[in-house]
Amino acid sequence: MRNLFTAVLAFAILQATLRFKDDGDLARRLRSRDPHVMPKLYDRYGRAAYSLIYRVVRDAGVAEDLVQETFLRVWNRAQSFDAERGALGPWILTVARNRAIDHLRSVEGRMAAGALELDRVENPALFSNFEDRALTLDRARRLKEAFTKLTPAQKEVIELAYFEGLSQTEMAVRLKQPLGTVKTWVRTALKVLREQLSEAAIA
Amino acid sequence: MPVPQALQTVEADWRGRQFRLPAEWSVMSCEELEDMFELYSLALLEGDEKSEVEAHLARGCETCQRHLRDALAVNALVMAGVPEMAPPARLRRRVLAGMGIERSGWGWLGAFAAALMLVVALWLSVQERRHANELAEARSEAIQARAERDRLYQAFQILNQPETKRVNFGEGVTQPPRGNIFVHPKLGVLLIASNLPALPAGRTYEMWVIPTKTSAPRPAGLFQANAQGSTINILPGPLDSLYAVAVSVEPEAGSAAPSTQPIIVAPVPGA
């Protein structure tokens, strides 16, 4: 698992800017349910959604189903998206990741609070007020660099959170470690990533 | 502090669906919560930590909103950093068809197939027309060849009969036409001529038979010469009498009586 994640990071080609200049226009047309926007939306984010979902479920057929579900969900929930200041890419990726995690959980039989929670955090209203600088290619590179600074344990908990959807309690069970230790790894790892992206690091 | 509109929506969305810790009950500071927004946005926060984050967000706390935005950016960048995989081309059609936006099924492949069929149909119709033209051409060639064969057979018939008389004309001169006329009382008259001058456009040769010394010439067929100035012309059918055979140049449609001086006049002796 650790080697895998290291490899993933080593070969990761970070997407270019996650916020395209004309995403506002796409979002407006999405909100007004202009069906012609969907091909454009798919062309822009279909590959990223598929890559992310495949990364989680590791099955091409399942990934295709979930990509379809992702775009259907985006289409159906777009009315409450903030077209002016919303971040379309992060929202679509979140929806995609959640579909994949939901699938993984149902396969593994660990539904817990599951679907409702996922549903809640992909509310398009959450993705408002994004600043342009938040999602630049430069920051994507910076984040990639930040991963190299993580310890193997820190990388692993990040992996388990983003791509396997394990809560800290579940991680503690999976890794046979005290919950406190897991929480420290998570907190430290996220701090490293966040600080790498912060304004101080850019300056 | 006014609650931002986006968060009001979030709150409205959440209301009634879940028990929420009243904001005034929260015990953690914004700084203490800073590390929790990524997990919160991934739906992985549990228990008190989750309630605390929700309480702060519902309160419209600016620091926490900034933390949330930063966390969403971190999450997006991590999620976008996975190895790139190319989805199969059919997925695009499937996704759009699933929303009823593009017709399900063949999409561009169907359009391509239709275009291909159109091209094939067009090609076939062109071919068919070409074949039809070729066929008509071949048919008319066959008709011409048959006519030519019949004519040569008639000529052979006349030449092959012992009763056939031969009359020579133009002997000893180079420029004017020369040749032979073969006369058979039942089969008709055969003219074989060479050295015929080229005709201007819209003109034809016309053969005449003159039955007796005093009778007027009777039309005996229109003909053209080949590129070498040679020709064969036959007037089939029995003849009561024949005094002479003549050839003149006439308008394309032929004439009832010669309109120009004859270029060949061949008296048939003993007739």
Describe the overall structure.
- Chain A is an all-alpha fold and 203 residues long.
- Helix content of chain A is 70%, strand content 0%.
- Chain A has 11 helices and no strands.
- In chain A, helix 9 crosses helix 10.
- The N and C termini of chain A lie far apart (35 Å).
- Chain B has 271 residues and is of the alpha+beta class.
- Chain B has 7 helices and 8 strands, in the order H-H-H-H-H-H-H-E-E-E-E-E-E-E-E.
- In chain B, the strands form 2 sheets. A 4-stranded antiparallel β-sheet of chain B has the order 1-2-3-6, covered by helices on one side. A 4-stranded antiparallel β-sheet of chain B has the order 5-4-7-8, with no helix packed on it.
- In chain B, a hairpin with an 8-residue loop joins strand 1 and strand 2.
- The relative contact order of chain B is 0.07.
- At the A-B interface, helix 1, helix 3, helix 4, helix 5 and helix 6 of A face helix 1, helix 3, helix 5 and helix 6 of B.
Evaluate the radius of gyration of chain A. Answer: 17 Å
Number of helices of chain B: 7
What distance lies between the first and last C-alpha atoms of chain B, to the nearest angstrom?
139 Å
The largest beta-sheet of chain B arranges its strands as: 1-2-3-6
Q: Which residues of chain A sit in consecutive blocks of at least 5 with pLDDT less than 50?
A: 6-17
Main structural class of chain A: mainly alpha
Low-pLDDT segments, ≥5 res of chain B: 12-19
Q: How big a fraction of the residues of chain B is strand? A: 15-25%
Summarize the helix and strand pattern of chain B as letters: HHHHHHHEEEEEEEE
Mean pLDDT of chain A: 82
Helix content of chain A: over 70%
The coarse overall form of chain A would be: globular
Secondary-structure-based class of chain B equals alpha+beta
Structural key phrases:
heterodimer, A: 203 residues, mainly alpha, 11 helices, 0% strand, B: 271 residues, alpha+beta, four-stranded antiparallel sheet, 7 helices, 42% helix, rod-shaped
